[in-house]
Design a protein that fits this description.
Blueprint: E1 5-6, E2 23-29, H1 39-45, E3 48-57, H2 59-64, H3 69-87, E4 93-97, H4 100-111, E5 115-119, H5 124-140, E6 143-147, H6 155-161, H7 170-178, H8 192-195, H9 206-210, H10 234-254, H11 272-276, H12 282-297, H13 307-319, H14 343-361
Parallel strand pairs: 1-6, 2-3, 2-5, 3-4, 5-6
Helix pairs in contact: 10-12
InterPro entries: Crypto/Photolyase_FAD-like_sf, Crypto/Photolyase_N_sf, Cryptochrome/DNA_photolyase_1, DNA_photolyase_N, Rossmann-like_a/b/a_fold
GO molecular function, one term: DNA binding
Family: Belongs to the DNA photolyase class-1 family.
């Protein structure tokens, strides 16, 4: 049996699995920490005898990363919520400690895995990581299934439509997607009916081996930690979406939202971190907003209604093939400025700046 890597849109058929062989699926969560609109997960469940949902957490990365404690707390809350939702399906989340390329192959052999599924990662780092894992799976005879669900569109399709180059202006980006079909509809949530008899083998030592760790276990000091502003997880994301759409109903009826001083404060309808971690599907948000507009306005919505989602899509498209998108050096779309490295001049500037700041306070 030869492993096949499936790239691209929803609905692409799996290849490389011997007819009649039992399917034992592992779904690898990274982003996309949700059960709704998860086409890769649903595809892996089809005809499977067993399934396991894993998240790979590198403890060394947690201790050495520049990512702050609040972001880690949000992620752990997302994993706890995902585990609770999987429990409702008589399953659990398997949190694996280690590097994916080291930890996953060992578990594949232990579990008799035949199929690995995951959401396609649009970021350059994730694409390299996934290619390496797919290569290992091919050697092990494991079928790999990827599906696009972190973005509205299959980004490569946008690039191909633009002659093989990512559009570098928002106006150009909008012109391209205006000629394309609408984004795929979101997939329904995974339920007991979806499983159709597929089970997850769970043992008594699951929490000890695969439980969601605490911040303390990851080496963080939590004594002075304030209560969270953002509660992580799919459940909170869907509740916020409902509140957000209630606010959008007022916007659609009476006009555009206006910025206020409170707009910069955390909102009970804010969705940004939930889209970032994939607790909320962009496609679900897109189509619920579309349906609401059509219900109120009795017409198809303008592109501007989805402006925030489309800006997100535009930047993902510009960055997906550019590993240095967040840097100047090595970035082909960034102006290369010959910055001066003069430590003495910098020290003088810093000294003067401090005096000006102090004078301003006085």
């Amino acid at each position: 049996m030869s492993g096949k890597l499936n790239l691209g849109g929803v609905g692409q058929q799996e290849e490389g699995r011997d007819a009649g062989q039992e399917r034992h699926t592992v779904h690898w969560f990274r982003k996309g920490l949700r059960l709704h609109d998860n086409p890769a997960f649903r595809e892996g469940l089809r005809g499977a005898k067993t399934f396991r949902c894993v998240f790979v957490l590198d403890p060394w990365f947690a201790g050495s990363s520049n990512v702050g404690i609040n972001k880690w707390r949000f992620l752990l809350q997302c994993l706890e919520d995902l585990d609770r939702n999987l429990r409702k399906l008589n399953s659990r989340l398997f949190v694996i400690r280690g590097q994916p390329a080291d930890a996953l192959p060992k578990l594949f052999k232990e579990w008799g895995t035949t199929t690995l599924t995951f959401e396609e990662d649009p970021e350059p780092y994730g694409r390299v990581r996934d290619h390496n894992i797919a290569t290992i799976c091919k050697e092990l005879g494991i079928t790999v299934i990827q599906r696009v669900s972190h973005t509205l569109y299959y980004l490569q399709h946008i690039i191909d439509t633009n002659g093989g180059r990512a559009p570098l202006t928002y106006h150009q980006f909008l012109a391209i997607i205006a000629c394309m079909s609408p984004p795929p509809m979101p997939e329904p949530p995974v339920t007991q009916q979806t499983l159709n008899g597929t089970v997850t083998p769970i043992y008594e030592d699951h929490d000890d081996k695969y439980g969601v760790p605490t911040l303390e276990e990851l080496g963080f000091e939590t004594e002075s930690l304030h209560p969270p502003v953002w509660q992580g997880g799919e459940s909170e994301a869907l509740a916020r979406l409902e509140r957000h759409l209630e606010r959008k109903a007022w916007v659609a009826s009476f006009g555009r939202p206006k910025m206020t001083p409170q707009s910069l404060l955390p909102s009970q309808t804010g969705l940004s971190p939930y889209l970032r971690f994939g607790c909320l599907s962009t496609r679900l948000f897109y189509y619920q907003l579309t349906d609401l507009y059509k219900k109120i306005k009795k017409s198809f919505p303008p592109l501007s209604l989805h402006g925030q989602l489309l800006w997100r899509e535009f930047f993902y498209c510009a960055a997906t093939k550019n590993p240095n998108f967040d840097k100047m050096l090595g970035n082909p779309i960034c102006v290369q400025i010959p910055w001066d490295k003069n430590a003495e001049a910098l020290a003088k500037w810093a000294s003067v700046s401090k005096k000006k700041i102090l004078s301003a306070f006085l």
